[in-house]
Design goal:
The structure holds two protein chains of two kinds. Chain A is of the alpha+beta class. Chain A contains 14 helices and 21 strands. In chain A, 30% of the residues lie in helices and 22% in strands. In chain A, strands 6-3-9-5-7 form a five-stranded antiparallel sheet, with no helix packed on it. Chain A has a four-stranded antiparallel sheet with strand order 1-11-4-8, with no helix packed on it. In chain A, strands 12-21-15-18 form a four-stranded antiparallel sheet, covered by helices on one side. The chains are: A alpha+beta, B alpha+beta. Chains A and B meet through helix 2 and helix 3 of A and helix 1, helix 2, helix 3, strand 10 and strand 11 of B.
């Protein structure tokens, strides 16, 4: 055979290996063995040929398409054929001069030394055997005021055991309630995070093996407030021996606040997930029409083990269609966020459709049930999901008198309610948004509808109570605020709101009890201290009132109410002896 | 080194590997220089069949760096406890370069309380007709090969694991060896090719 036709490692295979394999197949990374040298490759030659021809490795789920993704880890047909040829021809090394330079990797933190490193407080020990496990670590953030981040780097711990990880921003510290033991973390594949104000998630904070973190563009830094928790949700697979998992997060600050605000939109159709046992092609769809112009930055399809063929399309107002993503062989273990190489402009009026096909037959080797069982939507890995997340950057027009993100979220909430009038979250979220833009009556209506669906829900009861308070309907608010406290005796907001309601009814003594509870629950809330002071002052307990005003001022030296009231007490001649 | 054509290059590498093999044989103790053999971790020749007259012999072929093999550690320990002294069960490491030290560390890390052998010359690999780690071979009391192949069907493809195995070939084969019933058909394992590896 002429020498020119022979494939050699140095000339033909090394470039492929260095680019597509070495990032994970090197010491300290996710791959179980290295693929950095000729010796490494030759020892695994047949395995490499087999796995690349099946497109099992490198792991990349989406089909090639017109809208390219950044960092595509996909071999071309030619590259795969070349690998086969190399192995068939004896896996020779080739001329040393042909070998490209070894790939250079940044050791340790990929983005350099972080400004702050937060370590998980307690490690989690993954048992030696069993099926996939999800664990959540709560990181308390070390900021004393609002800061901006250009990146968060996730170091999950042992990269060979961690399949992927996700950060959820918990601005209300609501996830802490799920810990059985404080600071120990908690299990669970999917979690709900509660949010106080309209503050949609804006960034995907996702890690999978091979992820190279990239700093956000300067205009899109991520806001980190004081008292925000970062919940790291980690997917783990047992390795045969107990593994201690203790992840770290690296925070990289910037002093440039965001000027552009992307938004994560979630399309879904969980309600339609009722998959009979044995059904091979169960189709679930959702469609959403954009009310504003956006640029699509990234996409994240999500289903569980029965997901098979996942697809998202965009049909533009002019009738043209683009495939946003197509995954014909879904593998939950390789779920990933896909960033587009270039932002995809989608004009107002574009309809985005999600089409997911599920396979609940025994031929689906990933089926968690043997024999197959009927499966519905839910949070456990044996349940199913049909979610499609999109990171979009709305285009703001110069004369806009509305927040396009709010309009998007509102449209989405209304869309969800059309699909499912019994969607508690959609009612609640819509109500919250309506309230934020001052549509009080409609907000109250939607809180009421939410509450009808979950009458015991503390958050919804409190929210309705607060909305009624804001509308001056005090006596109507009281039963809801009381219900919130019955459901959740340690709900700060409910105590605070109820105390305010009682004050407006001149029931100061009762108000004091609730302000005291509020202060106990949130010792660094200046408003709670100041209001407690005011209520005490109203009942003549002046020295105690002063104590609380002073506390308020220690927390917030500019607190107007506390300062003015304290001055008033001090300057009143009747009070001089106190 | 300059290589002018395929033929001379090919021959050169055969020559080099023969030389290496010869060196290896010289280092081995005593009279088994002519015959391939497995080794105990202390370097002495081992014959798992000799030590197990009248008992079925079970050989499990593993690598220290194979995540699929490693995931089986708890199950293999369980299987060994289940059958106890009725069978002679060995872990076999066919790697040419893994040291005894590394294997002992591996056993320790994964909680293996099972006897281990090294098989750098692939004596047992050949006898057991295994191709991949992890694979198992079960020989009956007369030391006839009854089954060789996967431990169970947990892995369908490298990395594509079922939530739980639905067939349990190794367990079935051991029971067949003890009871004289029909063993399961050989089923290929999923993992790393033994022949290629160092």
């Amino acid at each position: 055979m002429p020498a020119a036709q022979q494939a050699s490692f140095n000339r033909d295979i090394a470039p492929i290996l260095f680019r597509y394999c070495a990032p994970c197949h090197r010491p300290g990374e996710a791959g179980p063995f290295p693929l950095l040298t000729y010796a490494d490759a030759k020892a695994r030659a047949r395995q490499i040929a087999a796995l690349t021809s099946k497109r099992f490795m490198p792991p990349w789920l989406p089909e090639p398409q017109e809208l390219r993704f950044a960092d595509e880890l996909r071999l071309s047909d030619e590259q795969i054929t070349l690998i086969q040829k190399w192995v068939e021809q004896g896996a020779v090394e080739g001329a040393p001069a042909d070998l490209p330079p070894a790939p250079q990797f940044v050791p340790g933190w990929q983005l350099g030394r972080p400004d702050e490193i937060i370590e998980a407080e307690k490690p989690y020990t993954l048992p030696a055997s069993g099926s996939d496990m999800y664990w959540n670590f709560i990181f308390r953030t070390p900021v004393d005021r609002t800061r901006w981040l250009k990146a968060i780097e996730i170091r999950p711990g042992d990269k060979r055991v961690v399949h992927h990880a996700n950060i959820l921003v918990d601005r209300n510290q609501s996830a802490r309630r799920q810990e059985a033991e404080s600071r120990a973390g908690f299990p669970g594949m999917e979690l709900k995070i509660e949010s106080e104000n309209f503050d949609p998630d804006s960034h995907f904070l996702f890690w999978k093996p091979g992820t190279v973190p990239k700093p956000e563009p300067e205009s899109m830094s991520l806001r980190l407030d004081k008292d925000t928790d970062l919940v790291l949700n980690i997917h783990l697979q047992p390795s045969g021996k107990p593994e201690k998992i203790q992840p770290n997060l690296g925070l990289y600050f910037t002093d440039k606040p965001a000027t552009h605000f992307p938004l994560l939109l979630q399309m879904e159709n969980d309600k339609k997930l009722d998959i009979p046992a044995g059904e091979k092609r169960f189709l679930v769809t959702d469609e959403f029409t954009l009310p504003v112009d956006v640029d699509l930055l990234a996409i994240y399809p999500h289903a569980h083990y029965l997901g098979k063929d996942l697809q998202a399309l965009a049909t533009l107002p002019d009738g043209s269609a683009k495939t946003l993503i197509h995954i014909p062989q879904w593998n939950l273990n390789w779920q990933a966020v896909y960033h587009y190489a270039d932002p995809v402009p989608l004009p107002k009026g574009t309809t985005i459709s999600m089409r997911y096909v599920y396979d609940n037959s025994s031929q689906n080797l990933a089926n968690p049930n043997d024999p197959p069982r009927r499966v519905a939507a839910g949070n456990r890995s044996s349940d199913e999901m049909a979610h499609l997340w999109l990171q979009v950057l709305p285009r703001t027009s110069s004369n806009a008198d509305f927040d396009p993100r709010m309009l998007l979220q509102e449209s989405m909430a209304r869309h969800n309610l059309e699909k499912n009038p019994a969607d508690f979250e959609a009612h609640y979220n819509l109500a919250a948004m309506l309230q934020a833009r001052g549509a009080q009556a409609e907000a109250i209506q939607n809180f009421e509808l939410a509450l009808r669906l979950r009458p015991q829900d503390a958050t919804a009861n409190n929210a309705l109570g607060a909305a009624l308070l804001a509308a001056g309907r005090i006596s109507e608010a009281m039963p809801y605020l009381n219900a919130a406290l019955r459901a959740q005796p340690d709900n700060f907001d409910a105590h605070y709101n109820l105390a305010s309601a009682l004050v407006s009814q001149d029931k100061f003594l009762e108000a004091i009890e609730h302000y005291r509870a509020a202060v106990r629950l949130h010792p660094d809330d200046a408003n709670a201290e100041a209001n407690l002071g005011s209520a005490l002052a109203e009942t003549g307990q002046l020295s105690e009132a002063k104590l609380h005003f002073r506390r308020a001022l220690r927390i917030d030296p500019n607190h107007k109410l506390a300062r003015e009231n304290l001055e008033q007490i001090n300057s009143d001649p009747k009070n001089l002896q106190q | 080194m300059h290589r002018s054509s395929l033929t001379s290059q090919h021959l050169l590498s055969i020559f080099l590997s023969l030389a290496a093999a010869a060196l290896l044989l010289l280092v081995l103790p005593c009279s088994l220089a002519a015959q391939k053999t497995a080794l105990h971790l202390d370097g002495t020749p081992a014959d798992p069949f000799l030590a197990a007259s009248g008992k079925p012999v079970v050989l499990i072929f593993l690598r220290t760096d194979c995540p699929i093999s490693n995931r089986y550690a708890p199950l293999l320990q369980q299987i060994s406890s289940r059958y106890g002294a009725k069978v002679a069960l060995w872990l076999v490491y066919p790697s040419r370069t893994s040291s005894a030290e590394k294997i002992r560390q591996h056993e320790h890390d994964y909680g293996y309380k099972l006897p281990a052998l090294r098989d750098p010359q692939h004596a047992l690999v050949t006898q057991a007709q295994v191709q991949v780690t992890p694979e198992a071979a079960v020989f009956d009391a007369n030391h006839r090969l009854l089954y060789h192949g996967r431990i169970d069907d947990l892995y369908q493809d490298s990395g594509r694991a079922r939530p739980a195995a639905t067939t349990h070939e190794l367990d079935d084969a051991i029971r067949a060896a003890l009871s004289g019933k029909t063993p399961p058909p050989n089923a290929p394992g999923v993992g790393c090719y033994i022949a290629d590896l160092e």
